[in-house]
Amino acid sequence: MNEPELQQYLYDHIPLSKAMEVEVLSITSHSVKLSAPLEPNINHRETVFGGSASAVAILSAWCLLHTSLRRAGHGPETRLVIQRNTMEYTLPIVGRFTSTAQFAADEAASELSTELARFLNTLKRHKKARISVSAKLEFGGQICGSLTGDFVALNY
Fold it and tell me: Is pTM beyond 0.90 here?
């Protein structure tokens, strides 16, 4: 799945992504980077609304797992949902921002991270698996927030 295909998938299946004008900037085997503009995500203080920032961070982590599942041969019958997350906001965002989700840096050099391999093997054996993914929000070259999300994949 390439960037335009993932963006169209999001717009077709997660309508909020279209309303927020989310763009898929890059996809690799170990990261996904999304961006969104200020205008449709603005709050009363003329900064990005916290819910929008959180939604883009969750979406980048979800996209990383979604593309990883597809690359591993899992189709639309595999359900991927967020179970819980924590979000930390460190700086206000006053323009177009990005969210990058990635597997742990020490594992990024290998094509398939140890954590992802465990997740995929558990899903194959038990038809259910959990994994934690992190994402960083950036604006103007600075980290503005971070997310840690626990996701569950289910095969029916």
Answer: yes
